[in-house]
Amino acid sequence: MVVVAAVVAAVTGAGAANAAPPSKPIPNSSPSWLAHGKNLGAASPNAHVSVRVYLAPNGGLAALQAAAKSASSSHQFLTPAQYHAQFDTKASTVSDVSSWLSGAGLQVKGVAGQRYLEVTGSVAAANKAFGVTIANFSHDGLSVQAPTGPATAPDSVASAIIAVSGLDTTVSIVEPRTQKPSPPSAGFRNAPVCSHWYGDQSPTTLPTPDGTALPRFNGATLPYAPCGYTGPQLRNAYESGAAAGLDGRGVTVAITDAYASPTIEADANRYATDTGDKPFTKGQLTQSLPRTFTQVNSNSSPRQCNASGWYGEETLDVEAVHAMAPAANIRYYAGASCQDSDLLDTFSRINDEGVATIVTNSWGGVGDMVKTPLLLAYETAFLQGAVEGISYAFSTGDSGDEAAALGSPQTDYPASDPFVTGVGGTSTAITPAGVIGETGWQTTKYSLANGAWAQSVPFLYGGGGGYSSNFAEPDYQLSAGIHSPNGGRALPDVSMDADPTTGMLVGQTQSFPGGAAYDTYRIGGTSLASPLFAGMTALKIQASGHGLGLLNPTIYADHSGFHDVTGAGIDAGNIRVDFVNGVDASNGYTYSVRSFNTANTSLSVGSGWDSETGWGSARAGWLAPAP
Q: Does the model's pTM come out above 0.70?
C-alpha cells in the first residue's frame, strides 16, 4: 500500500506562492467506489440535492493540530467558549462560502455551530457550484446519485472547506465493534457450561447424559471458556496495585453509539448489583439524546441501522466503563442513526458541553482505504477535544487486518486517525491471581465432528491492527522507533481483553421467544476493549486532577504502564459450549474450540510494540498521575 499524501496543505493554504488554479478539489469528495460503479447516465437537472459543506477551523487544521499538541503537553486547556472564540470559522468566511453557494442557485438552510452549512437545491445548481457532473449509478447493490469525480470550490473559498457530504447519496454508515454470537435483535444466552475463572473447568467428557468422551485438542486438554468476566474480576486483573481511592470519582466518561436503549439504567444497575458492584447513584448515568431518531432503510439501499442491535453495544459500553471506574460519571451521547454524519454530530455535543474528559467509541467503518468524505471533519472534532483536554479512544475493529474481508491488509477508521487512541484486542486468562496469560486476539474455529476437532473457519475474527493508507506515521511513533512498512500510521496503540471467548459478562433486557426479559451473556470485540481502557483512563484523570488531551504522545514516550503482550501463559484455545438455538438446551448443544492467536493474518505478537496488541494492556502503572 502507498500512503496517501497529507491533505493538510489543501486546507491551510500551503503552497499559495505558486500560481493557483481557479478552483481546487475538496478533499475526499470523489466517491471511493467509482472504479466499480456503473454509470447509468446523467441525473435529472431538477433532481434534489441535500449536502453539508464543512468548514475549516480559523487558521486551518495545521494551526489546530499545533494547538492540540501544545495543550496536551502543557495541560493548559481551553474552555469550549475559548475554543470557539479562537478557532471558529470567521463570520466573513461563512458569508463568502454562503455567497458562492447561493450564487450557483443553491439554498443555504442554516449554519450549524460555525461547523457546516446545510445546503439544498437541484442537481443543476450543485453541478454548477461544485464543478461536477452528477449521475445515477449502481454499485454494491445500491442505486444512488453521485458526482463522476471530485467536487471543487473556487480558489477564493477553497481553503475554508474541508469536506462536503451528500453529493453522493450512498448511505455512509458505521458499525458497532461487538461480537455477539446471534442476530443482534434476538435474545441470546450462553450455555452455563463454562469456567467461573479462566481454566477452573477442564472437562474430559461432554455435558450430556451419556458422558461422551471429549477429544483432546492437539494432544492437550483445554478448559471451558470463562462464563464471562465481571467488574470485580476485571479490576482485580488490570487495576491491582493502583493507589487507594482511585475509582473515577469526579471524572465523566463519554460514550457514543447510535440510538439509545430504553432499559439501559435498569439493566446496568441490576447487572452491577448481581455481580458484586454498586449500582449507579442518582445522576451518575445521564444521556444526551437527539430530538429524533431515524432509521436508515430505503428501497434503494439495503443498508440499515437496526436500532435494537445498537442497544447491546450501549449496554456493553456502559457496564464496562462502570466496571473499571465504579464512581465515574457516565454520559451517553446518542447518534440519531448509524450514519457517520450523525455520529460526528455527537462529538460536537461532547466538545461543546465540555463535561467529559475521556470519550470511548466502539464503532467504525470497515477499512481505511475507503475514505469517508468526512475524514477532516472528524479530525477537527478530535482536535477540538484535545485542545479542551478531552481524550478520544476508538475500537480498532474485529476483522484482524481486514484482508479476509477486503482482499488486502487495511486498518479501520476512525481508529487510524493519529489524533485518537486505537484500542486493539487480546485473549486474556484471568484468575484470582490476576492476568496469568495474554496473547493477541486472532481466532480460528474448530468444530466437533465425528469425535474429533476439525477446522471449520480459518479466520473467525480478531482485533484490528496494521498500517494505515490514509495517514502518514505520526512523530510520536517514529520517535518510539516504530517504522511501518508503508510509512503509514500503525495500529493499535494499546489493547485490552476483547476475545469473545474470554469476554465480559453483561446484563441486558432482550427479546426472547416468551417476551422481553433481562438476562446475561458473555460478549467481546474491541467494543469491550475501548470502554475498559476508557474506564481505566478515568482513574488516571482522577489521579492527575485534570484532563489529558492527546494520549498517544504520552503512551509512546513512556509505555511502562502497559503489560507487554507476548503470548505467554495461555492455552492453545478454549472449548465453547453453546445452545444450538441460542436460548436454551431444548435443541441441544454445539461445541467448538476457539483458538488463541493462531489465525493466518499479517498481524503478529512480539516483544515491544506489535501490530496485534500495540504496547499491550494497561496496568496500575498507567494510573499514575500525569504532571
A: yes
